[in-house]
Amino acid sequence: MNKATQFEAEAAAWLVRREAPGFSARDQAEFDAWAEADARHRAAYVRLEAAWRRADKLNRLRPLDGAVDEDLLAQSPFVRLEEYSARGQTRLTSGSAEADAAQGDAGAVVDEPANDVRQPTTSDRGKRRRLLPLAAAAAVALVAIAAGVWLEFQRTGWHQYTTDFGGFERIVLDDGSVVHLNTNSVMRVHLTAELRQVVLDRGEALFKVAHDASRPFDVQAGRTTVRAVGTEFSVRLRDAREVQGGEKDVEVLVKEGRVAIDPPKQHLERADVLPASVSTLSAGEAVTISAKRLHVEKVAEADVSRKLSWTEGRLWFERQTLADVVAEFNRYNRRQLVIADPSIANLRIGGGFEATDPESFVAALERTLGVRAFPSTPGGSEPDVIRLVGTGEN
Amino acid sequence: MRETQSNLFVNAPELAHVAEFARALPAVCRQVFTLRKVYGYSGREIASRLGIPEHAVEEHLVQAAYLCAQAVPDAQGLERRPSLLKRLRSRIVHE
Q: Which candidate from A19, A72, A285 shows the least CB-CB separation from B6?
C-alpha cells in the first residue's frame, strides 16, 4: 500500500467514525491531531468527504412508498429503466385493444372475470425483480403472437373502459380509486395483489388514487409511466393534430400529493432527467413529455381547477385564444367548430361553458364578440361543422 | 410538504456515477451502503436489519467510503476511473 492509498484508507475510517453517534470531543481532538500531522491527511480527508457527500444524493432513489430494499442498487436505476421499456413492449400490443374499443359503445365496459394464471404469487420484491427479464421476454413473445394478445388481456384480468365524443365516465375501481374518464378516451386497468396498472390508450383521465403503500398505482400513457401511491393527478395523451408543432405528447398534472414520472428512455439517455423513483412531480406541477421534449411547469391552484373542470362537464377558459378554445370544444363534439377567418383566431375568450353544447358557446360568441356562425345544413353532404367568421368589428 | 421543487432535473450523470459505483460493490458492502445512503439508516439499524455486528457495518462503510472517492468523479469533474470500476466488478464473482 503506498502512502497516498494509506492516507485515504485512514481518512475513510475517520469519515465513518465521525458520522457515528458517540463521537466525543476527545475523538475530535485525536482527529484534529491526525489532520494536522500531514497536509496530505487533510487533503485525503477533504476529498473523501466530498465524494461521500455526493453519494448522499442517492436518497433521491428512495421509493415514494417508503418500502425499504437493501438490494435497490443491485441494478443501476438506468438498468431498471429498461424494465419499463420492456413494459413498453406490452404496450405495443394495445393496437388490437384500441380497435376493439373503437367498435364498442360509449362508456362500454369490457369486464371479464379475473383469471390471472400468470399473477405472481410472491410478494418478495427482490424475487420479482429477478423475474423481470423473464417477464420482458414474455412480453416480446406476446408481440410476436399479436393475434392471441387480446384474448390474453382478457384472460389476465384487464378491464377496458371507453368513452365516445362528449362522453364522461366516473369509474370506481376495486381498490377504491376513482377515475374520471374524459371524452373520446380508452383506458385499461389491471389490479393485482402487488400492483395497480392502468394503461391510457387514448384521451384523458383524472385519477384519485386510494392510498395503498404496498401497491403502487402505475399509469402508462404512450411511453411515459406515472407512479402514485395515494394522490390525485390527471394524464392526457394528445395526438399530433392536437398540438401546435404537430408532435404527440403526454401531459401530467398533479392536483394533490406527489407522483413519480418515468419518461421515455431517450430523455434519460440525454441524462438530464432521472427514472421513476427519483423524478417526482408535486401538487401544482405539470409535465409535458413528447419524443423530443420534457417540460415541467408550475400551475397555480386556480388553473389546476380550471384545467380539470371537464370532470364536471364544463370547460373553463381564461384569456385563451379562440383557436385554442375551438380546439378544446372539438375534443368533445362530433359537430366541429371551424375558424374560417384568420382575423378572429386570436380573439381572447374567458368563461365557463358546457363541453357538449358548442351551440350555446357559438351563440355567446355572436352576441358578445361580433362573430358570425354558419352551421352546415343538417343531413347535407358536407361534414357537420359550424363555420365562424368575423364581421370586421373585431 | 414540498421538500424540493420538482427534482426532475437533478444532476443525473452524477447520480448515475454513484449508482454505478454502488452496483459494483460486493453484496454486503453494497447493502450497507444502500441502507445508509438511500434510506439514511444508522449503523445500529443497518446491523439489525442485515443481522451483522455493528463493527462489521462500520468496516463496510469505511470500505465503501474509500472506494467511493476512487470511483466517483470529484467536483472538478475528474474522469471516472473505469479500470477501477472494472476491478470492482470482477470482485462480485466471489459472491
A: A285
DSSP, residue by residue, A34-50: HHHH-HHHHHHHHHHHH
In sequence order, what are the residues at sequence separation of 6 or more whose Cβ sits closer than 8 angstroms to the Cβ of residue A116?
Answer: A155, A156, A157, A192
Q: Is the pLDDT of residue A179 over 60?
A: yes
Determine, for residues B9 and A273 on separate chains, whether the beta-carbon distance falls below 8 Å.
yes
Least confident range of A34-38, A56-60, A349-353, B79-83: B79-83
pLDDT for the residue A142: 42
Task: Assess whether pLDDT exceeds 70 at residue A63.
Answer: no
Hey, which residues 17-56 in chain B have their CB within 8 Å of chain A? 18-23, 27, 30-31, 33-35, 37-40, 42-43, 49-50
Q: What integer pLDDT is reported at residue A336 of this predicted model?
A: 92
How near does any CA of chain B get to the CA of A203, in Å?
A: 25
Indicate the burial class of A29 (C-beta count within 10 angstroms; 0-12, 13-18, 19 or more).
Answer: exposed
- Does A47 contact B74 at a Cβ distance shorter than 8 Å? yes
B78 touches chain A (CB under 8 A): no
- Furthest CA-CA distance within chain A: 96
